[in-house]
Write a structure and sequence with these properties.
With 332 residues, the chain is of the alpha/beta class. Helices cover 25% and strands 26% of the residues. It is built from nine helices and 15 strands. Strands 3, 4, 5, 6, 7, 14 and 15 form a seven-stranded mixed beta sheet that branches. The protein has a six-stranded parallel beta sheet with strand order 10-9-8-11-12-13, sandwiched between helices. Helix 4 (180-189) links the parallel strand 9 and strand 10. The longest helix is centred in the middle third of the chain and has 14 residues, at 128-141. The radius of gyration is 20 Å and the shape is globular. It starts with a strand and ends with a strand. Bound molecules: NADP nicotinamide-adenine-dinucleotide phosphate.
């Protein structure tokens, strides 16, 4: 069986570009005891993959040159020599940007119940994006009725869910997005009460849309946007540091405005969140989100390509804001 794989060709600095990757073909190896073979159906494209190939400031060793690009995917087990993993099961896990993955149970993030939701949803809303939105918002943000929740990258896979969950909690979600079109989508589909286009002067727009200050800041971008938002926080506000989309590179380490005094005088709490610390809560949280989809109380958007060769460009597009919802590549 032939396996198309996207491998890392050279190490980028900053956001990886298509020239840092190569599409190769390789035979699928024989399974050894304890292994199973996954046929990938949906490949996930995630901003975090920039970190997977860069050496700097990461919490896992980078993908070696020549290795298959680390990625989450949804796939079907088509052969197994692993007790507890059976043919025809669907799983969401670390199966890489490739057609087939020889995997072990360590690579599984969650077993999929195909009755709960469409297969693709398991790589987005019921994958790390929805789970992060739910757990980070509730664990760290703890929004209360009437509070203002400001969300960056608000029209994206994580942000679109945060808006709706904040609204369900009785809070007033405000979106930060890169275009008025995405802002309108946030108002129409994702529960947001107002939006700010960060390509326009930000401070005045924040004062206008968050007149009582920001109680919960769900930060997916960091950088100058976050610097500006911190100066608009309400007393005792909570900051969820979830992503750093706006930092082009950590080499050299970015410098800028100091916000120490904002944190002090406004008595802010700021906490980082990494979804992989919460593996044991995946099933339970995914069921809660799936129940909301079935009840019609949660909407989501997916942006699905069909060519494995396009996966590297898809990552560039996500960083350029050209995705409309969770970015996936469908293989079958
Ligand atoms: N901590 C965790 O465990 C965890 C888990 C999952 C995801 N995340 C993080 O959550 C964030 C969103 O991820 P996602 O998968 O849902 O992606 P996404 O929001 O679907 O796509 C990224 C969006 O970010 C915006 N963006 C890109 N560059 C930007 C910049 N320089 N400044 C402001 N906005 C920018 C773009 O929208 P606009 O057109 O609006 O600019 C783009 O569409 C990422 O930071 C990701 O790393 C964290």
């Amino acid at each position: 069986m032939n396996n198309r794989q996207i491998v890392l060709k050279s190490r980028p600095v900053g956001i990886p570009q298509p020239q840092h990757f190569e599409l190769v073909q390789a035979p699928v190896p024989e399974l050894k005891d304890g292994e199973f073979l996954v046929e990938n159906h949906y490949l996930s494209v995630d901003p975090a993959q920039r970190g997977y190939v860069n050496d700097e400031n990461n919490y896992a060793p980078p993908v070696p040159i020549g290795a298959v690009m680390r990625a989450m995917a949804v796939g079907k087990v088509i052969a197994s020599r692993c007790a507890g993993v059976s043919v025809d099961e669907f799983h969401y896990g670390w199966f890489g940007w490739q057609d087939y993955c020889v995997a072990t149970p360590a690579g599984i993030l969650r077993k999929i119940d195909p009755e709960l939701a469409p297969l693709s949803t398991n790589a987005g809303l019921l994958g790390i994006n929805g789970l992060t939105a739910y757990l980070a918002l509730h664990d760290i943000g703890q929004p209360k009725a009437g509070e203002t929740v400001l969300v960056t990258a608000a029209a994206g896979a994580v942000g679109s869910i945060v808006g709706q969950l904040a609204r369900q909690a009785g809070a007033r979600p405000v979106a930060v997005v890169g275009s008025d079109q995405k802002g309108e989508q946030c108002l129409r589909d994702f529960g947001y009460a107002d939006f700010v286009n960060y390509k326009q002067p930000l401070e005045a727009a924040l004062k206008r849309t968050c007149p009582k200050g920001v109680d919960v800041f769900f930060d997916n971008t960091g950088g100058e946007i976050a610097d500006t938002v911190l100066r608009q926080m309400a007393l005792f506000g909570r900051v969820i540091q979830c992503g750093t989309l706006s930092i082009a590179s950590w080499v050299p380490n970015p410098t800028g405005l100091r916000n120490d005094r904002e944190i002090l005088t406004r008595r802010l709490r700021m906490e980082g969140f990494v979804i992989f610390d919460h593996l044991k809560r995946y099933d339970d949280t995914a069921r809660k989100l799936a129940a909301m989809i079935q009840a019609g109380t949660l909407r989501y958007a997916e942006d699905i390509g069909t060519e494995i060769a396009d996966a590297p460009q898809a990552l560039v597009d996500v960083y350029a804001g050209r995705n409309t919802g969770k970015k996936l590549i469908r293989l079958r």
